[in-house]
């Protein structure tokens, strides 16, 4: 059967459409560049996450209406890269993240900003904050909580201490794999990984590699790097790390929980404008009196604001003194949010807005 003619005809049509898409991409980049000129004239920020979010939502809606032959779940990844590339014609954004390359934080950064920014790996969460303060980076990406291991306390502490704001969030599903240069599991003597990742995979490791030595290193990506030259070593890390360091995946998804998610925060200098689907994060302390928590939170109830999370941490200023990290629905520019937080602030010895930003998609 001669199928070449049939295929050629269809492929010619695809080529034509690709060309049209390419012309349109160039038209789009030209317009984005013009937007960039206007923004520079009026000293406005180049990166506007609320606008990007609205673009994704609008296109997903249209795609569903027109029959979604192109799967809707890929609208965001495709347009994220289109927008990222268009944005890069306006300005070269610099984004610091907790490195090295191929960590889950790196993945979160790519998921949020796309490929067309300068991703800068740094060694510690504090370095991410420092890079922004020293104006070596425009934004930063740090982990804040994991569904299994809980809160990354250090990130919360730094948010209190630094004059920076949360400008966005990313939630990633984490899949941990066993990888190495030796595909034979029985010859593995050492397993490297981050403390959290080893904890998440403990059940599988105990059962399948009971004699292997488990060695903690600073990141899953570092673990993959350590395993890349040693036949007797393996690492527990991400698929991206296996790709970068050229390792075989010996066993997929060895974390015991199928729902393993990590939330990352995007940090920057300013609060982004509202997207219509935002949350506000703030931190406050209490007076030492009966019913203090109830009384302090009362303005939220009074103004009809939904509190979605509250988390206490030692204030580190005095023994048994606590501060409360709180998430509410809405953007700080909304009248009712502003009024409620003004009232709440008056009742708290310590109060700080940590950010108002679009909720993770
Ligand atoms: O609309 C803007 O403000 C733009 O700069 C254009 C654009 C885009 O490519 O659509 C690029 C960057 C912004 O973060 C938002 C959107």
From TrEMBL:
* Location in the cell: Cytoplasm
Q: Which residues form a coiled coil?
A: none
Q: Which InterPro entries match?
A: ACT-like_dom_sf, ACT_dom, Chor_mutase/pphenate_deHydtase, Chorismate_II_sf, CM_dom_sf, CM_II_prokaryot, Preph_deHydtase, Preph_deHydtase_CS
Q: Which GO terms describe its biological process?
A: chorismate metabolic process; L-phenylalanine biosynthetic process
UniProt KW Magnesium keyword: no
Catalytic activity from the UniProt record: chorismate = prephenate; prephenate + H(+) = 3-phenylpyruvate + CO2 + H2O
Please state every residue range assigned to the domain named Chorismate mutase: 1-94
**Sorted alphabetically, which Pfam families does this protein's record hold?**
ACT, CM_2, PDT
Give the record's pathway. Answer: Metabolic intermediate biosynthesis; prephenate biosynthesis; prephenate from chorismate: step 1/1; Amino-acid biosynthesis; L-phenylalanine biosynthesis; phenylpyruvate from prephenate: step 1/1
ACT domain residues: 281-358
Residues annotated as domain Prephenate dehydratase: 94-269
The cross-references to SMART domains, in alphabetical order and at most eight, read: CM_2
Q: What's the protein name?
A: Bifunctional chorismate mutase/prephenate dehydratase
